[in-house]
Every structure is written in C-alpha cells, then in structure tokens.
Amino acid sequence: DTAVSQTPKYLVTQMGNDKSIKCEQNLGHDTMYWYKQDSKKFLKIMFSYNNKELIINETVPNRFSPKSPDKAHLNLHINSLELGDSAVYFCASSGGASGGPTYEQYFGPGTRLTVT
Amino acid sequence: QKEVEQNSGPLSVPEGAIASLNCTYSDRGSQSFFWYRQYSGKSPELIMFIYSNGDKEDGRFTAQLNKASQYVSLLIRDSQPSDSATYLCAVQQGTALIFGKGTTLSVSS
Predict the structure, then answer these.
(1) Residues of A with Cβ-Cβ distance to B102 under 8 angstroms
(2) Could you tell me which of B90, B89, B43, B46 has the C-alpha nearest to residue A111?
(3) How far is the CA of A8 from the CAs of A19, A35, A58, B6, in angstroms?
(4) Which chain A residues are closer than 8 Å to B86 by Cβ?
(5) Per-chain mean pLDDT for chain B
(6) CA-based nearest distance B108→chain A, Å
(7) Contact B72, B50 (CB under 8 A)
(8) Residue A98 pLDDT > 50, yes or no?
C-alpha cells in the first residue's frame, strides 16, 4: 500500500494554463505539506496543513493555492503557469506525535511539472 | 533566514569504507534533525532522525548531534554502491523541515 500518493506523476503544460496536483496519505497523519524541488535539487517548503488548517504559507506567489478537503488529502492548484514553475513538487505528511519533539515526514513520489 | 549547510560534494569513497556526511545549522534553538536519502529521480526517503546530543545508531548508519557546535553528521559504515545517492540534512522548524542542499555520495566498487 502506498503511504503518500500523488497524481499525476508527470505534468507537461503550456504557459498561462491552470493545473492541479493531488495528494493523498493513508498513514493517518494530521499534517501534510507541499515542497518544491528546483533544478538544482534544492527542496523548499511551500505550504503546510494541520487537520485541514493552513499553518505554513511560505513566500509563494498567490498563483499557488493549496486546498485540504480532509486531513488525508492536500491538493495544489496553480494558476497562470510560468516557465519558472517547472520543478518537482513533493507532497509529504507527518504524524507529529502530540507533544513529541519530532515531525518525521514521509514523502510522496513527486510530480514533475514542465511548463513550456 | 534559518539555514542548513552541507558540502555539495561529490563525496567519493570506495566500497567498504566509512562515508562521513556533515551538516551545520544556524538556528541554535533547533531541536530535531533528520537525514534523508534521495536517489536520482526519486523522492526523499527518511533514514534517521536525532534530537539528543550524542550518537544514534541504526544498522550501518550512525547519526551524530552536537548542539553546542550546531552540527549533525551521518556516518555510513561498510559503504555499498547502492548507498550512492544524495543525502539531505533537515532541521525541524515548527512543524516544517528546512533542508540543506544535499551531499552527493558516490561509492565505487
């Protein structure tokens, strides 16, 4: 069973289009994340949701809008795609034991977005 | 801006040797630290986490944490060609992880 899944795996689209990436986790975790990994392989946090509530919103263009319909799902919608949006987008989840010090995160397989 | 620094490498070691990967971080208040392995074209995979000063061992992997010096290291004993990957150090900030840019390890047979 896949713990954190993402669809689609690959996404090729033209500038100006709107696209969505979906993420689902079956680990029973409360917190989900979106990360962006650029061409230099640098992995950077974009958003985080805890129990459907947005808790982290890094400096990301407002063309990116996350949505969490329930705590097992976190989707990412991108409007007016630009060339610079080309990257791999990873979804992750963590259990964050209540009161515990660590938030081990488990990553999905990634969505490779190419904007032409 | 809280930062996590890693030598990008590549770090090349022969099969059977010990590979030593290092990471420093800027936020003295950081509590938890993680090592992820990422193969080319794949997602990051959690290897270990550590939050107490000292060593933590798991099989061939040992994580070392020194909060006073603000560094974390990962030792891989008996390195295998299958260990060739990029190793990402991450520091917990709230519920998010701040990643370093990774060190590429190459193990030659």
Answers:
(1) 41-42
(2) B43
(3) 10, 15, 24, 31
(4) 41
(5) 94
(6) 23
(7) yes
(8) no
